[in-house]
């Protein structure tokens, strides 16, 4: 039977677009209100805030995250190649803006090691191109911690007329200028992606690509911190192969290691790792995580200050961290143009991590987020802070897990965290003057435990899916050995190639009948299947398009043990020889047979079927080449008196075949060529003479 298709009303897309345009261009008080409510989700949920139920959890989680943020912000400034004060600015503004614009109740947005690394690589490259010495570390000043003294702490100066800044600007000034320009451009890209609804870009970053990228970047971060761990001064490597070059320089200069830094690093790592392991083991008994990083920083700062580790042992310290806020400044346009390309991967990675974490926790706690609004939120978390000397931000998994485990209910907790950071910015920052850089490096390295543990999951990942494991290995290797941006690009391209290859060479099979049923399965995978006499059933498990056409035909000919083109050519050749013998008056054929016996010779022994059923259930679409391929096999097998029957075609495939003329002009033969189940096609084939 032939099912009757529904008649779909033709949509006038032009009218729809014009109606949407008129609606979007109109402005009414109600529409303006709806726009503001959507753009600032805080206006929707804050009036409904259940204070008695939520406030304790939000305050508790906000305080804990704030306590964690301070040491992490100071530590991650090493990754970004900037002063700790800028990391604190970043943490403060990101929490406030996401509170106003974010749709997730739980994610913690702020400083993130991977984003800091990407910013730092661009900053280092531009400093090098501008003629600054990357190893020209500022000599710690014992001044009053004012911003003016801090800006003059690096004596290297450079006339920046080459990039359009007609002023003398020191290394630190130029570095934060690059970082803010990069951050502004990343935010602009994210807002544009939100306006044009390009959130689908995140679909091309699979879990394997993201995990491999994060692990490869973690190896780069680890490598960059080793010099602080052991207190050696080596040139900062730039460009491709930074990881290998850095390790070579480390081993060349290992004899210059600072014993004080080495001992401090060992003690800090042992304390941090032990505390983390105990925290993971007894987390169900602890009401909130142990603030180990803060304790380590406070103790290490006191020991360094009263032990005079910088003066006596030449241990590298953080130096003066100023208090207060620097006046806002518009990022330089010329610097934006220099880093415009670098901002694109930064924008994508920042957005993808934020949205994926938001969706994960929204699903866990049974609420919904708006991915497009998340893009706007994280975009403005970059654009607005860039005017206040901040750099790029993203959601971070570790801090988000801490937030949820300490009772977070809404983004009020983010405001509490921002207040803690503000307290440090206004009053406590100068107290961290004597903090050793090796302590900050220890905090960064221990925070990478989760990403580095992915190596332990490789065997299990390999058992689940070999292709995904290969994608992970390639992305991780490229991110670590080449560069993070190239690694991300390589991972995306390689994962796409894997999909293309899998559709180019998909599984193919001949099917057999499950005994006493109307179902059919792969004859090479299952035992005790019955072969259908005089009928071959072929399955192709992929869309049929230009890239896999040849593989489709080769597989069909191989499994059915018949190439209709070769068989037709063989028959023509034989007929030609017979005609030549008949013209010569020889009544014996070329094979020594009588003329009456030649008919038997024309029918090859290997043709043991009269019908070919193609199971199209796994063919999701056909392109023009796919339709022509079906028409080709229909014609070729028809020349051998073999009928071709299609089964289980979806409506899209049927429409493609109709448009391509597969069923003829009036579709008259459609009922004899198309079937809604394999069994119906087999029964029809058996009834044929």
Characterization of the model:
One of its GO terms (cellular component) is apical plasma membrane. This protein is an alpha/beta fold and 689 residues long. It is 59% helix and 6% strand. The protein has 28 helices and eleven strands. It has helices at 13-25, 29-39, 42-45, 51-80, 84-101, 113-129, 147-151, 171-195, 207-230, 242-252, 259-281, 292-307, 309-313, 333-364, 371-386, 397-405, 412-428, 437-447, 449-452, 458-464, 466-481, 484-504, 549-560, 564-583, 598-602, 624-638, 651-659, 678-687, and strands spanning 109-110, 157-159, 168-170, 394-395, 508-514, 520-522, 529-530, 534-540, 609-615, 643-647, 674-675. Strand 2 (157-159) and strand 3 (168-170) form a beta hairpin. Helix 4 packs parallel to helix 6 (113-129), helix 14 (333-364) packs antiparallel against helix 15 and helix 20 (458-464) packs across helix 21. The longest helix has 32 residues, at 333-364. Residues 138-167 and 598-605 have low confidence and may be disordered.
Brief write-up:
The chain has 689 residues and is α/β, with parallel strands linked by helices. It has helices at residues 13-25, 29-39, 42-45, 51-80, 84-101, 113-129, 147-151, 171-195, 207-230, 242-252, 259-281, 292-307, 309-313, 333-364, 371-386, 397-405, 412-428, 437-447, 449-452, 458-464, 466-481, 484-504, 549-560, 564-583, 598-602, 624-638, 651-659, 678-687; strands at 109-110, 157-159, 168-170, 394-395, 508-514, 520-522, 529-530, 534-540, 609-615, 643-647, 674-675.
Topology at a glance:
Layout: H1 13-25, H2 29-39, H3 42-45, H4 51-80, H5 84-101, E1 109-110, H6 113-129, H7 147-151, E2 157-159, E3 168-170, H8 171-195, H9 207-230, H10 242-252, H11 259-281, H12 292-307, H13 309-313, H14 333-364, H15 371-386, E4 394-395, H16 397-405, H17 412-428, H18 437-447, H19 449-452, H20 458-464, H21 466-481, H22 484-504, E5 508-514, E6 520-522, E7 529-530, E8 534-540, H23 549-560, H24 564-583, H25 598-602, E9 609-615, H26 624-638, E10 643-647, H27 651-659, E11 674-675, H28 678-687
Helix pairs in contact: 4-5, 4-6, 4-16, 4-17, 4-18, 5-15, 5-17, 6-8, 6-14, 8-14, 8-15, 9-10, 9-18, 9-21, 9-22, 11-12, 11-18, 14-15, 20-21, 21-22
